[in-house]
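User: structure tokens for this one?
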Amino acid sequence: MLKTKIVTSFAAATLLLGNVAPAAFADTTIDQSGGGAFSSNGVNVNTTNTQVVTQGNVANVDNNVHSTSSTGGNNGSFDTGGTVNIQSGAANSTTVVTNDLNTNQAALGCGCDNGNLKVTEDGNGAYSANGVNVNKTNTTVLSQTNEANVKNHIDSDASTGGNTGSFDTGPGGVNIQSGPATSIVGVSTNANSNHAAIGAGLAGGAGSSTILDLSGNGAYSANGINLNDNSTTVLTQGNEANVYNHVDSDASTGGNDGSFDTGGGVNVQSGAATAKAFVDNNLNFNWAALDCGCSFGALKVTEDGNGAFTANGVNVNNNDTLVAAQTQLANLKNHVDADAETGGNDGDFDTAGVLHADPSVMSGPATTVTEVDNNANTNVLSNGVLTLPGGSQMQFSNDWSGMMAFWGLLFSSH
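Assistant:
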């Protein structure tokens, strides 16, 4: 028996776990109060958070495997005065090739400021000019790409037989048997998988509060609060797979010769021939859960009790932008040839002895099994809730252990 097993794991996994727990920003308090008459007062606060992550894999695999198992070729000819018994054993050739290629996994928090914000602008004197400007900018960019180029050339041969027992003379007869021949080839290529979770229930502002209080300022004063919160999330996932499988699985048994024998029964028999070929391609899977709305949480704006002829204004802008692109390209070519042959036995020109036994020539069954399964190009995009294989759902929260277990990883947050 010859058994060949090749396992290729190349550029297997790129894993990034960053900012898994919500960013623990401290509370922010801005107090612009008590400015005197004719004063000019201003507060300007800018916060910027930028995350740029790039994950990329390229795998080039070329497997050229030739597996051969043979038995037989025995010769028992020109024997006299006895029984001739020739038997060859089983021939088995099994080849398994597994390619596991290119996996990107990323779990990112949004980096949103989820602390409490309080801006107070009150009690400033007459004819004063007062302003508070707060700008928050959050940008998350994640790019995941995979390229897999795979060539599998597999040749598996199993043969038994080719025995010769001719020109024998004797009362015992001639018995020639070849065993079964089995050739099995399995080729599996799993390539290009991207898993991404950005935010996924960790959006800043959840449970936080924003209070803007513009009150009690003097006559003829000008007072303003401007708050801008901008969040941008850009996700790109791309896969390209080029796979060529050339599989030959051949099994043959027989080709025995028991001709020109004299004086006894002649029995020529070949065993079963079985050729199996299995090809399984699983290519290009994108999976993403996105939830990066950096909201204010509970928002409260108070503008009252300001003096005569005052000019007061509160401006609040909250902009969330999400851009997601998932692309796939799969080029597949499977050339699968499974052949099973039995027979080709020869029992000609035999002469029976006193028992007048007829010659017997038998060939066993021939069986071929070929299976090709291609699964390619799947995109899954969800906003916080991800539907997993089997129909179950996963709601992302601060506990990432469920997702990590699904990815086959061990992770615990602290």
